[in-house]
Amino acid sequence: MKKIIFRGLIVVIALSIGGKILMDKREKDNEELRTIQTDLADYLYNHYEIYTKDKDKINEADKKYNGGTGTITDDEYLESLKNARQYFNIEKIEFTGFSVGPMKGLVVGFIINDVYPDETTLDTRSAETNKWLYSFNTGNTRNSYVLTKKNSLTDEKMPEENIIYYDKGVK
């Protein structure tokens, strides 16, 4: 009888230690994912903006240009199309998930300002800083918005209340 109790006690102790190790590993992984989200949000906040095009201004420019036979020149037409852009700073980022990509990179999904969904794959770290190197497909239109690099970069932290973290781990 004492052997059964002793074996049961050993099993309980082993499971407790294993559970503690597993919980510590999961907590460390979640902490790393939160750091990735904060760094990515700060990077987007400081280096990128989104824009959309004012359809009324574009239609007006198209009418004036009229396929090259209108009242404005090619350069004026291109300038009016450029002026039809409405730029918005990145004010809010909501992270929507993590997954492992086909090349074993970490795919991070996010939505900018509730209008621009995108994702990036983290698979390379900087040798100098040991931080992830981010790359985005600028110029893609999603929900009538386009992600583009800012003309003047900043070095600020994105307000913490404007970052919505994804805490469910990697799928």
TrEMBL record:
Source domain of life is Bacteria
What is the official name of this protein in its record?
Uncharacterized protein
Taxonomic lineage is: Bacteria, Bacillati, Bacillota, Bacilli, Lactobacillales
